[in-house]
Amino acid sequence: xxxxxxxxxxxxxxLTMISGCSDAISFLALGEVLTAAMTGxxxxxxxSLVNAKDLAPLGYLVALLGFMLGVAVGxxxxxxxxxxxxxxxxxLLTLCIEFIGLALFGLLVSFVTSPNHYxxxxxxxxxxxxxxxxxxxxxVNGVPTTVITSTTTGMIESLVWKAHNSMKKNTTDGxxxxxxxxWSSVSMWFIDIVIYGVGAAxxxxxxxxxxxxxxxMPVCIIVITFVLSLSYTSTQKVSxxxxxx
Length: 245
Fold this sequence. Notes:
Elements: H1 3-29, H2 38-48, H3 57-77, H4 89-108, H5 118-138, H6 148-168, H7 183-210, H8 216-241
Helix pairs in contact: 1-5, 1-7, 1-8, 2-3, 3-5, 4-5, 4-8, 6-7
């Protein structure tokens, strides 16, 4: 694996950790709302409509709309590069937007009271929506950073197919025809799932002591991600200008 590929993988894993942090903060401190995992959030919204466990539907609806708004913002920024995968200056811009959303959340924590926390939900969900569409442009092993369900499906599916294909080699039936993901992709998916849980656990621990100020953990992570991304794009630009080096 090349150095540039490792850097891209690291960037995606850091973004996934931010998703885990976001869901931990919103679930523990913003009314059991999920701001990155929209699958679970949609389930909670449906349950809230029938008054299951006294769940309030407004928070879940706000998170869904905020996430959609974030995707729309990211898609608009990336509209001229929508067919281009990898890191570029436009992707750097979406990372900046995500940073602004997370940092603004951190700055408003001390001023927004609990009954009026919907603004915080919007900011967090919007940031995750921007991140979701950004991750699609990165195109690293199909890792969306905000959806662990599809990542888990791809990992287990590939493991089963690989095991089946391995057994078929010793029979007259021959190997299966379905395309198989590489072991590096499978390992990347596994690490991504673990990283999501690690991010949630660490930020959940911080939330117990700092409350909503735990947001500064994902803020720090997005700064690190941006620096890595900026370094990556600068290196790629130099390499393209000096192909023989």
